[in-house]
Amino acid sequence: MADDRRIVISSDPGTSPDDLARHSFSTSFRGFDVTEVRAFLGRIGQELASLRERERELQRRIDELQQRPLRASADDDALLTNLGEETARVLRAAHEAAGDMAGRAEQKVARLVREAQEEAARVRAEADGLLARRVEEAEQVAAGIRRAAEEEIAELRDRVHGETEAELEAARGRGREMVAEAQTVRERILADLTRRRRVGQAQVEQLKVGRDRLLDAYRVVRRTLDEVTEQLTAAEAEARRERAAAPPVALEELPADEQFVDEAPSDRVPEAGAPDMADDDRRSSSVRIVREIALTPEPDVDRQPEPAVEREPDVSDEPAAVEVGHVELDTLDAAVEASVEPEAAGGAEPPSAGRPAPPAENIEALFAKLRADRAEAVADAEEVLAAVERVEEPAPEEAPASVAPAAAEPPLADGDEAALQRRDALLVPIEQALARRLKRALQDEQNAVLDALRTRRGRPSIDTVLPPADEQRGCYQSLVVGALEEAAAVGAEFAGQPGDVDVDGLATDLAGELVGRLRTRLDDSLRESLDDDATELDYSDRVSSAYREFKGHRVEALASDSVAAAFGRGHFGATPDGTRLRWVVDDGDAGCPDCDDDALAGPTAKGDVFPTGQLHPPAHPGCRCLLVPADA
Question: What's the confidence (pLDDT) of residue 112?
């Protein structure tokens, strides 16, 4: 009886149902099906959980039964007395049943674990066999695919190699043809450039000769005028002394002298102290030395299109000769005006002042003769310079060949040609005025830069001799905006109705390009001078050379392109919407296939782009094309 009371059922197992359900198994390349193992272990866990629940219920009942006798006597005799033999038997039966159930549960768990392990081993073996078969099949398929790919790659390699060799051979042939053609074109271009260089050098020499002749003529005229002025001053003083010493004579009393002066003032013999008229005629005739300068037309290099190569050093000086000629002519004109006109205005006094008539008439005749000779000399000098500027461009012996032939240019109709001529007649004065305005501004800026080079100490730089770039661009922009607005207004009127077009962007572009290129050129010149340890004269020469480059063809090209762009913008803006327009080609000497493509496109509605993406001309620098209505 005592042994039965000490039987206790433990409810603290080493492995719980959750541990069995969540237990993980390590897998290998030839493992087992994890899903089946986990399902099996889940079922075992559920059964084990039900057994545990049943065990806990039995344990609870046992605890209740064990606690009841504690309130009374704890010995067996008291228990038999209080509960009776039946109760003790029930308690022993419960202990036995709990022990049996625990034993059966442990046996069942062991059996389930053993079965699970056997099932897992079986599944693992099946999986290993299946995996081996799948791997073998995959290796066979991969080997077949590899063999097919290698065969196809070899075939493609052979075909591509053959095609590549054929293309390379064809490309080599085309390359040889292009090289031969390029060499031919290069030889023709070099020959043409060599001829142009020789012509340019000859023109420079001729211009230098003309400049020297003009300078010599100016010096002779100036020296003659100085001598005549001195003699006239002495003659006037002598005449005043004679007038003060002579008695007053009325005008009526000298009819013979007046008649003599009126008829032949140049042949009158002067009185003592007056300059000899023959000597004056000899000196005045020296003014006409300018007429002895040969009026052979000499080419103006600035008006010729520049070849697309860098000029020789001696060719870059040719604009200087023309400029010096103009400056010396202006100086000549100003000197003659300053030296002769004041004397002519105050040299003769009215007869009412009491001056003797013969000296006064003699001096007036001399001044009249000097004025006539001066006018002839200046006219002859201007004719020489005009002849130099009106030189015709020499016709090229052979036009340079073009590597890529341009598309056939559509022939111009009579109406198109008339429209182009009318447009040119409107724009040429604006272009010339704008070019002159820019050249004057560049000349003023050049003088300021040269003055800064003379006055500043130390090594000059672009920032010390020029204003800031923004300020310089603003000056040129304000200088050109008026001409561009005029060109835009002319374009609007050309379209048949006035319009207001904004040309500030064009003015900004023109000023930016001019200032940017000019500052770069000046900066390079100053840096070269610094590297060469140049003197002040070298600085001045290089700066002057840079400005001469821009005052020539470059400024004219910029002005012409900007005026054409303003005209095109104004003309397009004033054209009514929906108008169908044709592109009329006028691209000057430089052909442009893009313009030809636009012309071949036919009528295009306003607002639609032409094949090259342009809405209206100009399409490129130098383009002078025009849009005309399709029905025109």
Answer: 87
The Cα angle at residue 581 between residues 577 and 585, in degrees rounded to 5: 145
H or E, element range at 598: helix 593-600
- What CA–CA distance (Å, rounded) separates 415 from 628? 10
Range of the domain at 101: 2-183
Are residue 510 and residue 590 in the same domain, yes or no? Answer: no
- pLDDT of 6 reads 42
**197-222 exposure pattern, b = at least 16 Cβ within 10 A, e = fewer:** beebeebbebbeebbebbeebbebbe
Mean pLDDT across 377-383: 57
Q: 159 in a domain, yes or no?
A: yes
Query: In this structure, what DSSP letter does residue 271 have?
Result: -
**Other C-beta atoms lying within 10 Å of the C-beta of residue 485:** 19
- Asked if 93 and 176 sit in the same domain, the reply is yes
Whether residue 299 is found in the same domain as residue 366? yes
Count of structural domains within the chain: 4
- Segment 54-69, tens digit of pLDDT: 888 888 888 887 776 5
Q: What's this model's pTM, rounded to 2 decimal places?
A: 0.39
What stretch of H or E contains 177?
A: helix 84-245
- Nearest Cα to Cα of residue 346 among 249, 229, 432: 229
According to DSSP, the residues that pair with 626 across neighbouring strands are 584
Residue 572: CB partners within 8 Å, gap ≥ 6? Answer: 491, 495, 606, 615, 616, 627
Per cent of the chain over pLDDT 90 is 7
Q: Indicate whether 240 and 174 sit together in one domain.
A: no
Q: How far apart are the first and last CA of the chain?
A: 136
Rounded alpha-carbon distances, angstroms, from residue 561 to 305, 444, 507, 594, 622 = 15, 23, 11, 17, 6
Handedness of CA 76, 79, 84, 88 (dihedral sign): negative
